[in-house]
Amino acid sequence: MASPSPLLLVLDGNSLLHRAYHAASVEGWVDQSGRPVWALRGLVGYLARAAAHLRPDAIVVGFDCPVDSARKADYPGYKAQRAEKPADLAEQILGAPELLRAAGVCTVVPPALEADDVLASSAALAGEHGWRCVLMTSDRDAFALIDGATTVLRVRNGGFDEAVMVDAVGLRAVCGVEPWQYRDYAALRGDPSDNLRGVRQFGAARAARLLAAFGSVDAAWEAIDNGGFAKVCEAVGDIAAEQLAQPGTRELVERNRSLMRMRTDVAMPQLASARLPLQYRVMRQALSARGINFGPSLWALTGLTAPDSDVRHPLEIKPWVYRRGARQPSRIPGQLTLF
Length: 339
Prior knowledge:
Layout: E1 7-12, H1 13-23, H2 38-54, E2 58-62, H3 70-74, H4 87-102, E3 106-108, H5 115-128, E4 132-137, E5 150-156, E6 159-166, H6 168-175, H7 182-189, H8 204-214, H9 217-225, H10 229-236, H11 238-245, H12 247-260, H13 280-288, H14 299-302, H15 308-312, E7 316-317, E8 336-337
Helix pairs in contact: 1-2, 1-4, 7-8, 7-12, 9-10, 10-11
């Protein structure tokens, strides 16, 4: 049997730092100088646990550019509703790339772009070299990048123990769309977290019905323009179809799609520079300088032998089984079963 192709694990540093910050804010860990480190500690923990589970051949962590934003330049309202970050979170976000680089982790902060663009560019790079890719994030935007070689490890409320591995089958089961349709799906629904209003009358279910019937928003508009308005009404109802036909709706969806599009042209380092294992001593020294101590937990990142607990309880992925009549499935296809 042929061995599987190499695996690249890519982390969305900003989304995971936010998740770790809120998950451990009560503990409020600080370093020897009194600087906050609990979000940084949580990010390294996510990295270590994902590596232990997936055993990647290389790792990249991406961050948003802290200085400029091409998306805000295109649309000043982008993320304009967000409150200013707490000072202790902002400090940890700014310090994260330096800490990870000191620890030997391949880290990318693209000028004027975001971690999402690093994820997309990393997936494209992996595909060009015949690698598999797992994108680890707490956001849904990365679902649009799923393909035969790329899956999304989504961290949800409850931390890593509630993480789910999302592939095309899982996305279809939960959202009712294919990965190549996801950007249209998201553009129709909108994204309040980014201050992007959706189309009136179009929630998740109706957006999925439209795409199931026509494949894309463009195809639905083409039907409206060429005498097929009744078919659109049949798919989503009269009121929603009338809303979709409005000129302002087309402008809104085009704006959303443009802002949601993840760039694949970020200048990325060679895969060889992201290869594992990392140097254990270098990693421990960099983390310890900030009061972060993991020790044996770093085994999968540094090429050490797995601790006895991990050997006794090997990691596995169990399939999700949908039970008819269940209100809310607790798992989606491919959910991780973790140690």
